[in-house]
């Protein structure tokens, strides 16, 4: 083997080693490049479900009626104030126990529908009621190949997958952007959906906007397994050895 042949063999070995890693598309929605405009993502409404904690604030424009909610000496305040600290728990039948109204079903309603329904029911007994409803235990979990995996409390009941990933510090370079798993529990049944965040069609998925207790899992791609394998750890040593042999061979062949 002459020196040119040897150098060519070494160069081929180095190129082969460097080309083993699979190509990773790190750009979200990469097929938007030639698109002039994108329709707004469909707003997936969040509905109140059993076991949700709901904070409900009730007031009235009438001072006399307001005393029913605010007077610390009233029997209603003593009965319902402890529940109002953390919110009202929606029971398995979808009911909450409200002052003045009593048992009231709100499961299946969105926030706006619940506010209107409670206001309407309360107006039968209280003058000019004002009602505000908020889900206080709306949380999502982001795990896997993200920089800051965690569980997050959402205050406005509206968050999409991209926002969730942003809260988790975005994906690492090993995260599979074309195969993000959303795990959802609805009515006691778990459903799993995979989203391709390299494709704009994900905007139209009912899983793009997250619901309470959703789990987002970012799977690592094969390049991470390759990079952290024992053989890959030895790759720099192998390349250095080949380079040293090439230098040694050049010195020997020149003599």
Contiguous uncertain segments of 5+ residues: 70-83
- The proportion of residues in beta strands is 15-25%
Q: Would you tell me the overall average pLDDT?
A: 76
Termini Cα gap: 15 Å
Q: How many domains is the backbone divided into?
A: 3
Side by side, the strands of the main sheet go 7-6-10-8-9
| Number of separate strands | 10
Tell me what the structure shows.
The chain has 255 residues and is of the alpha+beta class. The protein has three domains: 3-22 and 231-254; 53-135, wza like fold (2-Layer Sandwich); 138-220, Outer membrane lipoprotein wza fold like (Roll). The protein is built from seven helices and ten strands. The strands form three sheets. Strands 7-6-10-8-9 form a five-stranded mixed sheet. α1 (3-18) runs antiparallel to α7 (230-254). The longest helix has 25 residues, at 230-254. The protein is rod-shaped and about 110 Å long. The two termini are 15 Å apart. The model is unreliable at 70-83 (pLDDT under 50).
């Amino acid at each position: 083997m002459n020196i040119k042949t040897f150098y060519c063999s070494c160069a081929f070995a180095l190129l082969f080693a460097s080309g083993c890693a699979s190509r990773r598309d790190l750009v979200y929605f990469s097929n938007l490049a030639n698109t002039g405009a994108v329709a707004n993502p469909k707003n997936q409404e969040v509905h109140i479900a059993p076991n949700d904690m709901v904070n409900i604030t009730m007031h009235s424009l009438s001072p006399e009626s307001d005393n029913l909610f605010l007077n610390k000496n009233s029997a209603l305040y003593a009965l319902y104030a402890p529940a109002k600290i953390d919110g009202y728990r929606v029971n398995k039948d979808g009911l909450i126990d409200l002052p003045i109204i009593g048992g009231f079903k709100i499961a299946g309603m969105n926030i706006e529908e619940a506010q209107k329904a409670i206001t309407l029911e309360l107006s039968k007994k209280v003058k000019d009621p004002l009602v505000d409803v908020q889900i206080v235990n709306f949380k999502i979990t982001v795990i896997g190949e993200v920089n800051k995996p965690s569980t997050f409390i959402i205050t406005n009941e509206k968050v999409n997958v991209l926002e969730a990933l942003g809260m988790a510090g975005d994906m690492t370079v090993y995260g599979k952007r074309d195969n993000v798993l959303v795990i959802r529990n609805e009515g006691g049944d778990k459903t799993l959906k995979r989203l391709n965040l390299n494709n704009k069609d994900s905007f139209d998925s009912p899983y793009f906007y997250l619901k309470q207790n959703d789990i987002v899992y970012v799977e690592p791609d094969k390049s991470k397994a390759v990079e952290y394998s024992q053989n890959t750890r030895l790759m720099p040593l192998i390349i250095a050895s080949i380079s040293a042999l090439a230098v040694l061979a050049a010195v020997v062949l020149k003599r």
